């Protein structure tokens, strides 16, 4: 058995599970026109591909991507001053507990002369609706849907998308699961018997574990599987061997 770094696209980050690492992820611009909005490299590539697929290059604007701890603290403090504590706790994650600090989360807005940084307009119709329908195919989920507030601890945010990877995004979207529920499902039911998820030409075998076998680490190094910490004391192994 062995341990693995606390990283990966399935990190659960919320008020009960603070970000476990301080290392800055491998970041690139989500869109060269907005160089200040950065994402994890793989997430950024998939986001651009999804926006191109719906011909949304001139309509969909990346509003907020990776944030440092200091930036998240400043947003928290500013929103508290301007909107009050109740509003802030609904729409802004606690510093150290924000998905934006992973580089895997992106807030999107419909292009307009003025865009609200905290609550950008990203409707369910038009090009934004088309993006929603394809998002899972490119590895993104709507992280804070309506009806799941008691689980996520965050109000419905139609603009906030999280990269988790294609097989996971497809399964979560099909089953109407948020990341908290998905991690718990894997831990409860798929530690011994993997979850099988078809995506494209592959069938992915997904399992949860507390410790990793040497064969898992070797397969990950060889590019035959992916290991992600779940930030709940275990790992999620996604195997396509």
TrEMBL record:
Coiled coil: none annotated. It holds the Pfam family VanY. It comes from Allofournierella massiliensis. Gene3D superfamilies: 3.30.1380.10, 3.30.200.180. Residues 38-165 form the D-alanyl-D-alanine carboxypeptidase-like core domain. InterPro entries: DD-CPase-like, VanY-like_core_dom, Zn_M74/Hedgehog-like. This is M15 family metallopeptidase.
């Amino acid at each position: 058995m062995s341990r693995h770094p606390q990283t990966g696209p399935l990190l659960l980050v919320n008020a009960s599970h603070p970000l476990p690492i301080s290392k800055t992820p491998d970041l690139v611009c989500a869109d060269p026109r907005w160089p200040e909005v950065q994402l994890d490299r793989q997430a950024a590539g998939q986001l651009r591909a999804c926006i191109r697929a719906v011909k949304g290059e001139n309509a969909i604007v990346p509003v907020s991507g990776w944030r440092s701890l200091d930036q998240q603290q400043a947003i928290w403090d500013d929103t508290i001053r301007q909107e009050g504590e109740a509003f802030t706790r609904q729409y802004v994650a606690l510093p150290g507990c924000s998905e934006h600090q992973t580089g895997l989360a992106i807030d999107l807005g419909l292009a307009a002369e003025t865009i609200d940084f905290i609550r950008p307009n990203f409707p369910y119709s038009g090009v934004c609706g088309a993006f929603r329908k394809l998002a899972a195919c490119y590895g993104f989920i709507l992280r804070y849907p309506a009806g799941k507030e008691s689980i996520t601890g965050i109000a419905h945010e139609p603009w906030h998308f999280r990269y988790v990877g294609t097989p996971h995004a497809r399964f979560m979207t099909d089953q109407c699961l948020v990341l908290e529920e998905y991690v718990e499902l894997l831990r409860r039911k798929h530690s011994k018997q993997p979850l099988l998820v078809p995506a494209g030409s592959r069938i992915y075998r997904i399992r949860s574990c507390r410790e990793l076998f040497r064969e898992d680490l070797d397969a990950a190094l060889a590019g035959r599987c992916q290991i992600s910490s779940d930030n709940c004391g275990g790992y999620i192994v996604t195997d396509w061997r």
